[in-house]
Each structure stands twice: as structure tokens, then as C-alpha cells.
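call fold(seq) -> C-alpha cells
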Amino acid sequence: MKKQLMGCVITLWDRLENQTLGKGLGLLADALYEKDDSKLATASKLLDRLLDFGYVSKRSEPIVRAISAFGLEASGETPQSKRAYQRLSDTFLPLETTLGSKEIAKAFTEAIKHYGLRDLGRFRTLAESIFAELKRREKADVRPDIAEKPDYMVSLGVIDLLLTYQEVLEGERKWDILASRVESLNETVKTIPTSPWLSVLTRLVCHALSADARRSILKLNLPKHVESKLLNRKITELWIPQAEAIEKGLLVGKNIVYSTAAATGKSLLAYLVASHASISQKVVYIVPTRTLADEAFRTLKDIVHSSRTPVAISTREKAQYDDELDQHAVIVATYEKLNALVRRKKIDESNIYCLIADEVHFISNMDRGVPLEFALARMKSKSVDPQVVALSGMINKEDADQLSAWLEASLVHSDWKPVDLDEMVLYDGCLYHKDGNVEQIPVKPSPAFPKLHQRVSVASHLVRDTIVKGGQCMVIVGTRKGAEEIAKQISKNLSSRRFFDPDLRALLGADTKTPISIDKAEREKLIREVRISEPELPICAKNLVSLLSNCVAYHHAGLPPKYREIVERGVSKRVVKVLVTTTTFEVGVNLPVTRVVFLNIANMLIRTYRNLAGRAGRPQFDVKGESVIIALTENELQRLRNKYFLSKNEPLESSVQNLAKRHPYARYAIQSEILGATLGRDITSFTALMDFLRQSWFWARADDQKKQEFIDHIKIELWNLGANYGLITYKEDSGEIEITSAGKMARKIMLSPFSTVNLIDNAQKIFKKKHDEKSLKFLILSLVGIPSEVRENDSAMKRVQVPPEFQSISGILKQNPIFKEQLDRTVLCPKYGTILWYWINSFPTEDILKLCNLDLSADAALLEETLPNNAYWVLHTLASTPDSALRMTQEQRNLVTQLAIDCRFGSSDPLVHELLSVGFKHIGRNTAIRLAKYMRKKKKNIKQLAESDFLDLFPKNPESAKLLFAELKARKGFHDLNARADFEKS
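ret:
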């Protein structure tokens, strides 16, 4: 068989008349004979690279492209095969004589392309048209030449085989028929005198379909609606590491640690597991951030949700499902919220069939590591272990082995990537590749300019190079403000270069003679989407409109969610060519680009760098992804190469180790776990507590000295919880721990014990004394800054100036010395109160940012999302505190509740609340405030407003004004809502 195969390949090689193909074709023959998928992948990639370098003649290109595509698919490199299939456009295989016409040969080639891209509807149409035309010719007695008959039979056999697999994907489970036809065609091509290239291609087709059948999602026994959703997303087969996870028992209840590179399909595994959930056997999917939780919830809702598997979300800000979680099969939560739900008995842990922990390398994270670690530890401590699936970015193999041992799990650890990655450092006009190669490029910054200017100049050259080659570029910077400023500078550089750079002119559409491309039309749609989002656009939206005209955008956590989503959609649709961003893409939404440029990598973690670099490479468009780190000195070059190319990832340490360093946030997290450990038992013992804490990742890795230090520090925190906070009584001689009534209350609140007692203590100070209404509201709003859980806002708050009118009462909030805590969060409270005071009093967002010395764009999401959500949550928690813990009158409790609602809507105006609560698409806070003021001034309700009113009110954005008017008028019943508002009185 090998002789025959090599004969086919040698003949093919000779006919292609290009000696450079020898190595690739010889390797391909060996791989097929030895059934070595790794070797087959190498051979197919080599052929693909030869095509890129132009080493294949035009006549032979279609053949090599098709062989490369099926070779990549057969070897499991499905993502890279997409690009190879895509390249079959505008060409055709040499079958015009065999099939009788150039048109049929083109249709054959096009059908193969659409099959490979899993555009199954288009494939079937083309396949049926081929058979129909051949049948018509046969009736007309137009038959192939006898010499072409073997190729004719084999060609039709290939299409028929692909149609069989398509029928399998569309619901007809003909696995046995498919296997039989694969075997039959394989035997046929061995025994009849087929053209050499067609013989090789056909064997690859058979090999690919056999491999596809083995990796098909249809063999996973998924619910029908889940299968349908995945097929609609063109997810038909598993990738190599995903298939390994299935083989190791992912879908039969086995514990799995899945540690792979970025963008390798971790989320799909979570969806597959979740699809088997039920109300009595729940799947809980925990993630580090609320943004990731929202993203996972949306996808699970789309793919998995059904009457049998209802999906819910629970985060600090989204608690609408919390009282009905027992009626849901799949629950998405943040690490911290899961622990709170368990403590509040909103989830019965005995009903958790599987815990999926995403981004489990966050176990080392100072802020989020402890709740993740103890969520996993609780699962380990159950008498009947639920399944644990730990999904992680790349971690060191030895750490992955230890983590697997700790979780008693099978390990999938792979450096496989959907697209190969070429890592480089750029210094002094040379690209220093990770593999040691050095490549000169015409990019040298002038040392006469400031360093930041040099870096941006180099980045602009790299961006230009990426764009003109049809790619997309992501530029990583250190700060939110930096992301916006550098995006503006790169956009300016691209704009200025257009006039003497014909390639950029053609791509960015500056030349009026250039035909408008699909990209340009899509770009205009994206710009319009931002512009019409609401009549009163925030500054960040105005900036985006300007940048998008040059196909540039920025992205960071400070950008309000609706604009982040528009930008992400622009990248997915290849409209945004340049995305300047902070490290927000380290986890979460996968937006692959061609090249990732690191402007100033500074002290970035190795793991963060590798996760971001892994975003490079678009499976359907790029033969490889590229990451480029910019260096300005030789010392920097060496340091960067040593750290990011030659070093291992940081060790996967437990964040619990920070307890020994007396780090406040580690201590507060551990205190929460101690209180949580008493759940269901109001009296426990030090021994029982330590039995639980010994289940931790920290204990699994610690030496004897660190274990003893840990025990000593746990005793200190027990003392704090008892003597200082009054939440427990702890008798050190007997080891008995008893939770107090205050402790039972604190255990149910989603705050750390210290945040709880500090908040209640200061609230009690406020409510004990009489204050005028304005001062009382300001003091209550200031309480939002007390919990350490809102510390994400602290850096911005430090810039806020407290108005003189509130400075005299600011001193009322003080941290009680009995707590004996060095970290005093009450210092920032008046600053929180100041910004929230402006917020609920309907100051325009940009005015608030100016008054508070904040950035108009980079800090926009602080007001649009983060702080209002935090304020609502803290004040709602305060209002729900029982009288036994916090004495306040019903009037005071009502005021706290009302302020929480005002913070959520950004105004104390009930009409603004109504306008925002209905969920109109084209309205935001600023627009609602202006509209409410206008209605009062004109003494009109919604029913009385005309389109001209909206155009008068929003003259700078007439299109959005018209859309909002139409939306308000179309919403039945809404125009009567504000009849309750007494305009005259207001």
C-alpha cells in the first residue's frame, strides 16, 4: 500500500512541476500510511505555507489547496482548515474534462469549500446542482471519455460521501452507512486507475470524514435543541483537547482539570456539561467577574436553556433569580456570590451535580482567589462528591498535576492552539522571534522623541502593516486613559498616512475613486449604531464615532457596556481593524485578531501576556497569529525575551498565603469562610473548622512551617470575629466556637464580616442623631464607601473633592477603634457621598465627572455602571438589615431603600425612573433627565409630545431623536404612565 501511495505522490509531485513540494508531499504520504495525525498536520501546514510563499504554480494551486484543507481537517486542525477551504474561492480543481465543463468543475470546488466551512445549505445546493447537470448530460448522451471514467466515478463518490455526512449532521444518524461508504470509496480509489492528485485527495477526504465522525458532537447524546444551536453556530466537531476531555469522562461525571492555551474552546465544554443538567441535578458555573457572568449567561440562555434546563444568573448586581434558584437547572454566578448563596441557603448544595469553575488560575488572585478556593474545597468535603470541572488558561505542568491531584481529577494539559502563534520582540528595526530567528523590518523609532511617542510610532507602523495585509491588530496598553489617547494617536497617524499610502487609501476609503467595499458599508452601520444609541450621546460615544471612521476603536472596563458590545461586534465582523485595549481580553470574550502588539509590557504577569498573545490568529483568515512586544533598549530586549519567552508561568500559589502577610483583603475573605463553615451548626469546634480548612489548595501545597503559621493566624481571626466584631464566641481552651445572633445575620449578607460590622456601626451613628434632610441623604450615600467589596472604585474616588457644604458633617463617619483595623475605609466615604449626591440630583454625567476631577471618557463606566450598581447593592443590603442588628425607624428604612433606587437610576426624579425602567433602546440617563425636565417645563406628558419636540430638544442628533420618539409612541400603555406625575406641583 505504501508503494502505491508513494507512487501517487511522486506522480503528483512530477505533474506539479515544482521540486519544493517534495518534502511536504513525501511527509504527507508517510503520514497517511502510518496513520500519524501529528505528521499529517505538519505536512498539511507545510503545503499551506508553500502556497503562501508562492512556491506552487497557478495551475497546481487548487490541488494543493484542497489537499492541504482536507489534510488539516483529517489531522484535527479544524480551525486552520477553514482558512485553507476559504482559499478555494475563485479557482477550481482540474476536473473540467472529467465532469464535462468548467462550470461543473467550479461547482465541485465551490461545494468542497462550503462543506469545509460547514455552510451546509449552500453545499447541498451545489452538490444537487452537480448531480442534476450530470444527469441531464447523461440523458442527452453526453458521457465522459472512457479514459476519464475512473476520475468521474471517484469525483462523484467524493460528493456523495460529503452529502452523506451532511445528512448525518442534519439529523439522519447514518453512522454505519457513512462508515461503509468511507471504506468503499477508500477501496475504490486503491483499485482503479485514478489521477494521482485525485487519489491522494480522496484518501484524505475519507480520512477526514472518519476523523470528523469520531469527533462529532452528534455522538455526545446532547439534547436535540442543544445540537441544533451548536450546528447553527457551525460547531460540528470537537477540537483535539476538547475530544481528550470527553475521552477522560467529562460527560459521565468525572472530575476534569482542563488547562489549555487561550481560545481553545474551554467554554464549549461548560455548555456541553450544562446541557445535561436538571432541576434536581444542577450545574453551577462560576466565573471571576460579573462581565464574564453576563457573557456566560447570555450564551447558556441561547444554547442550553429549555423547560428542562432553565438557566439563571446570580451576581451581586443581578439578584432577580435568587429566590427561585431551586427551580433552575443551570446557575451562573461569580465566585463570591456562590458562597453567599450557600450561606443564605438559596442553593441546596446537595442538589449540585457539577461545579464548573472557569478561569481557575484565579485561585492565585489576591481579590478573588479565596472564595474560588473554598468553593472548590467545599465540593471536595462533601460525602458524595459532585463533579468538578476546572477550566484554566495555561498553567505549569507541575502545577496542573498538583491541582488535578487535589481535585482528584483527570488532567487535560495541552499547548495546542487553533492557529499557530509566532512570538516576537521588536527592537531597533529587527524582529527577534521566539525560535531564535531574526528578521529586519523598516521600522526604527527616533530616540530624539519621548519614549511613549517612540512606542506609539512603532505600533502605528505595525498596525499599518497588519491592515494592508488584510488583518486586524490589537494594541495592549496599561491604562484606560492610555487606551483612548493612543487609539486617537494611531487613528491620527493612519489618517495622515492615507494621502501618500495607496494601500491604506484603498482600505480605509479615503480615495473617492475607490469603490465602496463591504467593509466600508459595515463600518458606516457600526458608526450609525453608536450615533443613534441615544439622542444625548456621552463623550465616550462621540470619541468612538470619530475613531471608527478610521476603523479604530478602544476597549476597557471603563467603557459603558452597550458601547463595549458594539466595539466587540465590530471586531468580530472585521470592521474594526485596530483595537487599543487594556488587559480586559485576558479572560472572557474571544475576539481573535491577526496581530497583538504590546506597547509597554512593563510588569505584566507571564500568564497575562500569554493569554493576551493567544488572541492572535483568526482561524478562517490567518495562517498564523503574531504577538509583538516593543522594546526600546537592548537591555529591555533581553529582559523581555528572558521573561516572556524562556520562563515558565508564575506558580499557581494559593491566595490564602496572604493571610500570613496580614493582608486586609485576604483576612476579610478568610473571615467570611470561617463564618460560612458554621453553616447549619450554630456551635462547632476549632477541630471541625480546621478539618474543613485542611481541604484547601493552600494546605495541599504548604510545608509544615506554613501550615503552623496558618493555624496561628486562624486563631487570630477567630479572636477578631469574637472579641472585636461580636459575631462569635470562641473559647480557646476548649476550642468551642458559637455563632452569635449578629454572626447569623452577618453570615447571610454578601459582605465580609468586617465590612458588615463597620457598615452597621456607622449607620447606627447616623440614625441615632437628627440631621436635616440634605445632610442625612449625603451621610447615607457616603456609607456606600465603607465595604471593602467596592474598592474597585477607590482609585477614582481619591481624586474627588468634597464640597465645603458637606465637609463639616463628613467627620461623623469614623471607624470604631474597637475593631483594631489598620485599614480605615471611612476616609474615602465623603468622596463616595459627593459623587453619588451629584448623581441622584440629576447632574449631567459629564458635569459630574468634571466636578469630581475624573476623566470624561475613561471614567464614564464608573457612573454608567460600576458605582450605581455598587451603591444600590450596599444600600439595599443596609435597608434589609433586621432591627435586631440595626435600629432605625420605618421612615429611615424607607429613605435608604429610596436612595438605593435613586442610585440605580441616577436620579431622584420619579419621571426619570419611569422613562428608564421601561427598557427603551434609545434612551440613557442623560437623555431621560433632559426629556423629563423638558416635559415639566412644557407641562406635557408623553402622549402630548410631538416629533418636533424631540428634534428641538436634541438638535445635534436628529436621527436618534426620531427613533426615540417612534419608540415611545409605539410602546402601548406607556404614554399613560406619567399621568401620575404632577407636573404643576413639581
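The longest helix spans residues 149-169.
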